[in-house]
């Protein structure tokens, strides 16, 4: 029988509002995930180097802004929700500028770089605050369930968002698809504004920011559970970016796939992620927390090796990629829910913003590095080589967790 603290997470009104906001925001973001590169490649006729720079601009804020955002979140714990709402409104305004620029003839890659960089800066603030605020909304016993629901919804949004994005790009245009992205941020801001949390006393401002920075980094690299997760995530993000850039260039430039076909591949990944995130927590009690995390990482990170067959299947390329992305989605969908929940449970409340900022600084900071490297590899050796190098690197990233104490973790409560 469930205890009071383990009541269904759907009974929590504030969580439902957070969930609705997350769903709307993610739906719009997933539309942009396919609309933005196609906006660059099709509408603006971007080269491989320009597409690489766009990805760098899209993720460079995670390297530059994450630590200041984490310090801000911890300094003003009572303002975390307002930060998230402001970030949503700012992102909506910025994204609307892109279709307006396209329709007025002022769009160009420099404009796209600036807008994407600014919007991602606000995304960093939103995500750091979001990580820190969830444990205040749900109980520790609900964390895995809550993260599972959020991750499953994000995966469902990936299915609908990328599918809708591909349809809108093919039927209308990439600028029109981007308007749905902006609308998602507006709906998210409205939903978040209805969350009511008890007042939180702000922490004393005695420690200088640099000490907070050092504290967050020290905790992250020393903790026996957080450190291997950081290593895996950083390695994955670096090589996954190389793989994805090579995949998009190969699909558009060499294989001649339509936006709808590319959208179908991403939708397949979303289907897998949804299944993994929604049902993954059911395996934990039976097989153990750490063991489930390791096995699903092996599954999800190993699946991309299938792209090595991309130049041998001819007309079956779309089917091959859909299969790879489904398996990858299932594994990573389960693993991500467990990894995020583990980090939240293992990190004290007073350090969550700092630790999440340090974690994202390193792991997400690897993405612009991967984008830049992917552009170099794709330009010098070709898109297929970039795709292959990335897939092999992603598969190796699991070694971090396999060689740690995480697989021996039986329950999430043991990590606190």
UniProtKB/TrEMBL annotation:
The protein's topology relative to the membrane is:
Multi-pass membrane protein
Does Transmembrane count among this protein's keywords?
yes
Q: Which residues form the Major facilitator superfamily (MFS) profile domain?
A: 177-416
Where do transmembrane segments lie in this chain? 21-46, 52-73, 85-105, 229-251, 257-280, 292-310, 316-337, 358-378, 384-403
Q: Keywords of this protein's UniProt record, alphabetized?
A: Cell membrane, Membrane, Transmembrane, Transmembrane helix
The keyword Cell membrane is assigned to this record: yes
Subcellular location as annotated: Cell membrane
The name this protein goes by in its record: MFS transporter
Mind giving the lineage of the organism this protein is from?
Bacteria, Bacillati, Actinomycetota, Actinomycetes, Micromonosporales
């Amino acid at each position: 029988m469930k205890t009071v603290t383990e009541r269904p997470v759907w009974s929590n009104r504030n969580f439902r509002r957070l969930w609705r906001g997350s769903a709307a925001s993610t739906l719009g973001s997933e539309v942009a995930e396919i609309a933005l590169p196609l906006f660059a490649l099709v509408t603006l006729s971007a080269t491989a180097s320009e597409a690489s720079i766009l990805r760098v601009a899209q993720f460079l804020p995670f390297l530059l802004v994450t630590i200041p955002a984490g310090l801000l979140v911890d300094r003003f714990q009572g303002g975390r929700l307002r930060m998230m709402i402001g970030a949503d409104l700012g992102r909506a305004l910025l994204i609307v500028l892109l279709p307006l620029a396209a329709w007025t003839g002022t769009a160009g890659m420099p404009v796209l770089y600036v807008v994407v960089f600014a919007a991602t800066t606000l995304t960093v603030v939103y995500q750091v605050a979001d990580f820190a605020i969830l444990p205040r909304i749900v109980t520790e016993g609900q964390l895995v369930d809550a993260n599972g629901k959020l991750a499953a919804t994000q995966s469902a949004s990936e299915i609908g968002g990328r599918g809708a994005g591909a349809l809108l790009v093919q039927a209308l245009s990439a600028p029109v698809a981007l308007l749905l992205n902006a609308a998602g941020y507006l709906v998210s801001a409205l939903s978040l504004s209805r969350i009511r949390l008890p007042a939180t006393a702000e922490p004393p401002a005695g420690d200088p920011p640099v000490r907070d920075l050092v504290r967050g980094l020290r905790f992250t690299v020393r903790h026996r559970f957080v450190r291997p997760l950081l290593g895996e995530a950083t390695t994955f993000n670096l090589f996954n970016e190389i793989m994805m850039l090579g995949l998009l260039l190969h699909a558009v430039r060499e294989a001649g796939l339509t936006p709808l076909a590319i959208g179908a591949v991403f939708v397949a990944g979303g289907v897998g992620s949804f299944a993994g995130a929604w049902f993954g927590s059911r395996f934990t009690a039976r097989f153990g927390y750490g063991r489930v995390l390791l096995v699903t990482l092996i599954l999800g990170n190993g699946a991309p090796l299938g792209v090595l067959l991309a130049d041998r299947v001819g007309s079956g390329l779309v089917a091959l990629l859909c299969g790879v992305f489904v398996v990858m989605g299932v594994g990573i969908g389960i693993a991500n829910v467990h990894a995020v929940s583990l980090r939240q449970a293992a990190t004290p409340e007073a350090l969550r913003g700092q630790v999440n900022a340090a974690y994202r600084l390193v792991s997400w900071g690897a993405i612009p590095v991967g984008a830049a490297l992917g552009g170099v590899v794709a330009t010098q050796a070709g898109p297929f080589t970039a795709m292959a190098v990335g897939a092999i690197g992603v598969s190796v990233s699991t070694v971090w967790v396999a060689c740690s104490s995480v697989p021996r973790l039986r329950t999430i409560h043991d990590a606190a």
